Amino acid sequence: EPRSAWCCLAWTLVIGAMNSLVFLINLLLMFVIFTIVLLPTIVVVYFGFQCHSQVLHSSARYCKNILDDNSSSALIILGFVIMSPLIVMAMAIYCSLARRLRLLMCFQPYSLAVYKGGKWCHSKEGAVCGCARGWNTQVKAWV
Asked: According to its UniProt record, where is this protein located (predicted)?
């Protein structure tokens, strides 16, 4: 049966807050994974730009002794070349972790706010948020 207008509004706000929290947790997890995996690219490109005479031309000792313009250009190119496989690897790690923790199953539908008697998720084995409704471990995404 439908909820009253005020009750529906209150439940909508609660469910919206829960979904926003789940979204922020997913975003934070993705940011941490991408930062860790892309750290080699970030470092290589940073040192390439730091020591190139046409960009920043740092007066650091390693720029004067080790890196000239040609080696700085090589570092910049190498950094951008290794970025593509590292982005794919970071996305694979995030998707695997999100699937294992069942983070995308934690989003609640807004129909719980509109109608009374909607069932909240119950904890299943291995679910972080307890929202793995009807989770079938035999289902594959590519089928």
From this structure: Membrane
Measured over the CA atoms of residue 17, residue 18, residue 19 and residue 21, the dihedral's sign is: positive
Q: What is the CA radius of gyration of the chain?
A: 24
Q: What is the pTM of this model?
A: 0.70
DSSP readout, 33-59? Answer: HHHHHTHHHHHHHHHHHHH-TTTT---
Give per-10-residue mean pLDDT for the chain (143 aa): 77 88 94 97 92 79 83 93 96 94 83 66 49 50 46
Q: Which residues pair with 115 in a beta bridge?
A: 2
